[in-house]
Amino acid sequence: MEYFTQQLINGVTLGSIYGLIAIGYTMVYGIIGMINFAHGDIFMVGSFVGLIAVVVLGISAATPFFLLILALLVVIAIAMALTAVWGWTVERIAYRPLRGSFRLAPLITAIGMSITLQNFVQISQGARVKPVQPIVTGGYTLMESADGFVVQISNIQIIIIVLTVVLMAGFTMLINKTSLGRAQRACEQDARMASLLGINVDRTISLTFVMGAALAAVAGVMFVLYYGVIDFYIGFLAGVKAFTAAVLGGIGSLPGAMLGGLLIGLIETFWSAYFSIEYKDVAAFSILVIALIFLPSGLLGRPEVEKV
Amino acid sequence: MANSTEESALSTSAVGAEIEDERRAEAVRGEPPFTVNPPSGDAFGAALKDAIISALIALALAGPMVGLRTETAIGGLSLTQNWMPVAAIVAVVFFGRLFLTLFVWGRSSGIRSVAATSFRLLPSGTQLSNWKVPGLIGAIAFTIVMPFLPFADRYWMDQAIVILTYCMLGWGLNVVVGLAGLLDLGYVAFYAVGAYSFALLATNFDLGFWVCLPMAGILAAGWGLILGFPVLRLRGDYLAIVTLAFGEIIRVVIINWYDFTNGPDGISGIPRPTLFGIPFDRSDEGFAAIFGLEYSSIQRIIFLYYIILVLALITNFVTLRLRRLPVGRAWEALREDEIACRSLGINTTNTKLTAFATGAMFGGFAGSFFATRQGFISPESFTAIESFIILAVVVLGGLGSQLGIVIAVIFLNTAFEVLRELQEYRMLIVGLAMVLIMVWRPRGLISTRHPSITLKGKAKAVRAELVGEGSG
């Protein structure tokens, strides 16, 4: 029971990170119907920007608590802003010129962008892994079993979960209540009609990329703080898993992306805990295949209506 | 009532203001504004403004990533500052954007789109068919005599083998993506299955290349069927992501199933191919001794070259013939419109499965050739990036075009070789080139299609815009 609880906490933490990345996939897919393959690498760029900000600000575990929280917020803000610029640029260079064009073309430019970003970071920041000293330390003991197994929730896990919940709530508000969110949903339903009604579709799509990149940047910073080690290649696997999460939850659906992220995180953690850690990726992907066969439109997605 | 009119008037003015804002933003962004002839005095100012904004974006992008390099140091990370490259990047973006806006894009807004559609890499239609047969014969003759031409040393032969291997992979994937319109991002899985089946059969059961080659192909085709069944119901991008996941699953299993596949260490000592049992080595039974030649390692390379040439030509020939068979026509019909296919009584399940299996089989052949050529395989060779490159070859060449794939492979390989000097910048440039080429020609290098069957008379090339998208 104690072991289970501990894995549950770890799984929810990991799932939060996947969920934040998955939102970027699901929104972009919803609005222009393409897999933004470079999104995983946007996440990676976000984690690097966060890392650089952490080093520049000189944050360490020794920083006093309130200052630390403030500094982390600054780091997240910097990462969100700069990564959003990356997301915007990728859209502008690789996807906008191909709008309304042959369907596979943006997929290839996305792969090209992914290769470009990975190699750009590899050249500019070096190919070796970047270890970070733990910054947020400490935690709370929740329960203790008879044989001495301690269930702990660490401060960083609390920060990740709380931040994810806050961001998700804010983001849902943004999509449901603001005019930007309305424009976004309108473009998702029918881009041409939206443009006839005076919505600047190009700008809305750009903003979708910007928002997705900003959330991925938060996930990136959380990843740095949680795992303490990054390299230029983390984007690929995280990206594929986040996309799996988006598909599992029902692509195009925001709560679906979050739910899918949580599920993928939990599956991966429990699989590593109870079966074998080597095959955790296989488990995540097998779930994807099984989910798609029995639930082609995902858990919360609307079934596609085929028009002839 | 009055209230509502007031409100609507308000909202109209708000929308008007928004449109005004957008216009201004558009002008700042340097895109062609809606006026036909923009006033020339303003043009330079706008271009300058636009270039400054681009430079600022470049600064935001490159500043922290290039300017501040994190280095692993004792007790954490340290920073090294190098602002010169940042300055260079920003300057290049500024002047490049300024130049492009003033002298390339600014001239006439219509030019770009017209150029994109009217420009053809090859003369289309009848002109092409006049050159087709002699061109084809010439190309095949050249590939056959190539090993004996004076320039063909070890380096060139190796390059030729790599080019042919990728041509074969491209042609194999073309069956799935180009003909049947099923987007497969995990093609490298079949390549891996082929390579590992050959390597395992050869090292465990002491079988030779020629026995294992068909078995590797059959096993890969079997895996194609196994993958094909569950994904039959999926469409488009879902299919893409499942095939990608499948490719990763195969790789992870190969890495972790240590007892069977030797894990990340790979399999070495894979036998070399023989010519009717004659090995290419220094021994008395070797090729050189029997034919009275002086031993040279290039003989084996030339032999490998011919094997892959024949395999690639078989792939191409089989694909071209299959296109004329009912199954091939069903593939292309499936690509164009699945619903129409179903209503015409085509069994879409079987059609998709045969496409998967055929493509996988060619991938398996190429994989076992790869294994025998290298003599050593490891999971490193079968990463997702390999799948992407093969897919990029197919799409860059122009979906469904056999010749386009050859051109794309030669182009990519040449790019890799020319950029070898630049080492780590190589992939960066290749990635950017992929983006730029796709933006320039979204339909690939050869975008016209020749119908595989016509009612009567000569087949006319079909323009790219009229061809279906392969949305599977």
From TrEMBL, chain A:
Keywords: Amino-acid transport, Cell inner membrane, Cell membrane, Membrane, Transmembrane, Transmembrane helix, Transport
Record has Phosphoprotein as a keyword: no
CDD domains, sorted: TM_PBP1_LivH_like (cd06582)
Stretches of the chain forming a coiled coil according to its record: none
Pfam family, one: BPD_transp_2
Location(s) in or outside the cell: Cell membrane
Record protein name field: Amino acid/amide ABC transporter membrane protein 1, HAAT family
UniProt lineage: Bacteria, Pseudomonadati, Pseudomonadota, Alphaproteobacteria, Hyphomicrobiales
Automatic annotation (TrEMBL), chain B:
Record-annotated High-affinity branched-chain amino acid transport system permease LivHM N-terminal domain positions: 47-137
Compositional bias ranges of the Polar residues kind: 1-14
Stretch list, region Disordered: 1-34
Source organism, top-level taxon: Bacteria
Transmembrane residue ranges: 43-62, 83-105, 131-149, 161-187, 207-226, 238-258, 301-320, 388-412, 424-440
Compartment(s) where it occurs, according to its Swiss-Prot or TrEMBL record: Cell membrane
UniProt keyword annotations, A-Z: Cell membrane, Membrane, Transmembrane, Transmembrane helix
Cellular component, GO, one term: plasma membrane
Membrane topology qualifier: Multi-pass membrane protein
InterPro entries: ABC_transp_permease, LivHM_N, LivM-like
GO molecular function annotations of the record: branched-chain amino acid transmembrane transporter activity
Pfam families associated with the record: BPD_transp_2, DUF3382
Entry protein name: Amino acid/amide ABC transporter membrane protein 2, HAAT family
